[in-house]
Amino acid sequence: MVQLVKVSEIRLVQQVFNDTWFFLKDWYNLSKNPNESDYEKFVGAAGKLILKYKDTKVYDLMNDLVHAVIKHIDRMTVKENKNDEE
Structural domain tally of the chain? Predict the structure, then answer.
C-alpha cells in the first residue's frame, strides 16, 4: 500500500534532523570544554529550539530531547564538582 506524505511533513523531518544534529554537536563541543558562559548560551539556544517546534507534531520529541540533554549536563556538572571538592 502506498501512503502519500505531504511535502511540508518531509521538510519538517529534514529540519528536525538538522536542528537535532547541530544541537547535539554543540552539546558535544560544550562537554569537551565546559564553561559557564557557553552553558548559558546553550541553554538559551535550547529554549529557542523548543519554541521553534511549539505548534508542530514533533514538539514533545524536541522538548524531551532538550530536557534530557540539559539534565545530563547538570548531572555531569554536579559529578565534576564533587570530584573537585575531594
Answer: 1
